[in-house]
Specification:
The chain has 6 helices and 3 strands, in the order ααβααββαα. It has about 140 residues and is mostly helical. It has a domain at about 30-115: Arc Repressor Mutant, subunit A (Orthogonal Bundle), CATH 1.10.10.10. The chain has a 3-stranded antiparallel β-sheet. The longest helix has 21 residues, at about 5-25.
Length: about 140
Amino acid sequence: MNLDSLQSIEYELALLVRLITAYSPKLGKLDRSEYLILSELNENGPMAINVIADKLMLNISTASRQVGTLESKEYTKRFPDPDNGRISLIEITHIGKEILQTVQNARSNFYSEILQNWSMPDLKQLENNLIRLNKDFKQRKK
């Protein structure tokens, strides 16, 4: 591997995270953790906190605190796992789905503006590479 390329990739990813963080407050009322948890619940249905933590590579106390914040805003709710009453499952509420949809629309519009001059093959390549990079990060674990 070329060290210069790896240094460039590392810097560009750090810059990308910073730029996205700078624009995020303008794209809705969800912070990154709220957005990701609600997206997981919306896509995959109810799940236990330990599953949320595993999917997002968080420790359980962090995931529990973030879910607690979502519950206080009534974006999620808990209910006992029918298969194991000792475990609570978390699900997205109607209000949570509405706010998530609003934020997803704002983000889609924003990215549409940013990427408007990209060709479809370039967009598809970016999509595939980001999916691959995230998959590799998840496989790496902490």
